[in-house]
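@channel anyone free to eyeball this complex?
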Amino acid sequence: MKKLLISTVAILATLPVFSQQALWGGTEIVSPEINPDNSVTFRLFAPNAQAVQVTGDFLPTQTVEVPNFGEVDVPGVADLVKDEKGVWSFTTPAPLAPELYMYSFVVDGLRMMDPSNVYMNRDVATVTNIFLIDEPGSRAHLYKVNDVPHGTVSRVWYDSPGLNLKRRMTIYTPPGYEDSNDSYPVFYLLHGAGGDEEAWIALGRTAQILDNLIAEGKAEPMIVVMTNGNPSQEAAPGETSEGFKRPGMDVSRMNRGEFETSFPDVVNYVDKHYRTKADKAHRAIAGLSMGGFHSLHTSKFYPDLFDYVGLFSAAIFPFDGRGEAPVYQDFEGKLKTQFEKNPKLYYIAIGDKDFLYNDNVKFRQILDANGYPYEYFESPDGHIWKNWRIYLTEFAPKLFKQ
Amino acid sequence: MKKLLISTVAILATLPVFSQQALWGGTEIVSPEINPDNSVTFRLFAPNAQAVQVTGDFLPTQTVEVPNFGEVDVPGVADLVKDEKGVWSFTTPAPLAPELYMYSFVVDGLRMMDPSNVYMNRDVATVTNIFLIDEPGSRAHLYKVNDVPHGTVSRVWYDSPGLNLKRRMTIYTPPGYEDSNDSYPVFYLLHGAGGDEEAWIALGRTAQILDNLIAEGKAEPMIVVMTNGNPSQEAAPGETSEGFKRPGMDVSRMNRGEFETSFPDVVNYVDKHYRTKADKAHRAIAGLSMGGFHSLHTSKFYPDLFDYVGLFSAAIFPFDGRGEAPVYQDFEGKLKTQFEKNPKLYYIAIGDKDFLYNDNVKFRQILDANGYPYEYFESPDGHIWKNWRIYLTEFAPKLFKQ
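replying in thread with the prediction:
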């Protein structure tokens, strides 16, 4: 085995500057280390630093004033302490609850990744490290890759005549799809503004959640289709001919309603290329924030398409009457038609600190006033991925049950 | 649109510590900036830093002594200069040749990612930022996502009775696969020690290279199957029930030859689940370093399986007679049988500074002495991904031509 080992040494040796931070007295730095009691220790080898902090959503939030916006809760900050070898460390004073957490280091005021942790998530243009506190039976256990059958995750290009684009989407097919001739129901799952077709699979842990819920018998085997909800985009940043462009918000073309009206392009592609149960009773649509807006409008514009509709922290009334496309017109009339056709589930979920909370209250008042049935789920916290993962674990088990 | 915009502000506002480094006098830092002449400017907002450097493979290499190993060439280092606003910058003194480059910042001795660049690659346990210098007609243009038809990339789990594991692989199907009934040839593409089933698709830019070569009519449409070559592993780090474990080398079970002898598990799965041309004339196998070793031994152990064999910077004789599994026995006898069956292409590629260069010379001497035909391609540089991408662009166009 000698030369195989040398091979790796050679690869690493070409990058001594890149790897030396991971070495400390011959021992690799472990960070984050999840201790047996679920407290967590963070470590960084930085002998020249004056101050090292860790910031992340595992720390108690602090309230800050954002100009032109108001007060918001932001992740807290904790100080690391340096030892005689130049290794800084911080251990949480208490065990952490099971959850997928994100964090970064701040070294002399400069945010940086943890060089000992290769696991990261990108949210729009911000990358942070992640770690998972697991506990069997907890909700977070659904976010973990467990020893259960796994579905297939594919990045697929489809033609959207309605947007005049070739576009990329992410498709999850459930375990066993390849080895059966069965047809499956389809769940269309939409991201928020600034996201893309990678958001739900990465930040939302969709494949893990579905694998685990299906293995536990809590969700039906289903296909999950995650499209790109930005009607001007072909695909996620880095996956188009624009190259390694900086990710950002691009809501151009949004108010023309083309994304919603062209949604049958997606459904047609999926029904043609996958073994689907191609009827209303076996289709669901849900989305977060802007994706909730898309789910709301698409499902009422095509009232025969979806029997299951989920609005997660949805942007309900973002246009203030300025959306002139037909899909946005006659809001209450379209809603009436949709509910006259008795969708099996209309589901609304939001956090009690979400800045869209009051808009969702107003929308529920419309539903209540008209006697339109819906399920409502309220969680703590605000407009964050923690909540959207929770809503997915709540919503998916309700789908396609007879 | 007001509230959609607010929605993103809210997301970003929850992370002021995370995003403030990207802001500078109201303007976002752009880094790296590829200038019109293909020089590149790197920038970092770090008002408190004492010294900021950039290191990467775009800088002239420097030779260093690695203990117990010898001299190796490593990426050079350049100093950034601070302006009055706290923004450090460095511009390459000359245009860069078209290539996919990697780099990191070093701030007061601490390596860190560029917070303005979300594009990164992981090589074993080391993450670096990347950027691409493009020029139409250049080889690097093949590494870019261009406005051409794109294949599908899937992560698929298969059963390997030979390894007694459920395992993950990455499969590229060419543009048009979903909309035809055609059968396709299959190219099995293997990574090196420390890599996994993500290595070729991420570091090797396989999907981009195949999309572009096929669009240019230079390569036949083909399926590319990228397996995990570590026989003890189910899947890449983070994709198994071991959780977010630190990536590393795991060559346990390697010398039993199980990976090579169980390779028909992969071929059988692919032939059963994809529309393949399931014969020797339409199968290729190639790999880098350890994957070259696997390609060498698998192709001679199963001499009727592959008509095309590629050894990229291959580890040829790593066992020094210590590999006791049948697949490694009777090296020259098996090679004789393989060449008596006239493979259409036996291809060897290596860099002139590769630490495995001399082993490859010895292996070619055996081939020459026996009159076994092969193609040989020698490039500058050593045991690096730049070379493996080059070899893929050279090898793929030679496959499956009649």
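from a first look: Chain A touches chain B through 111 residues (CB under 8 Å).
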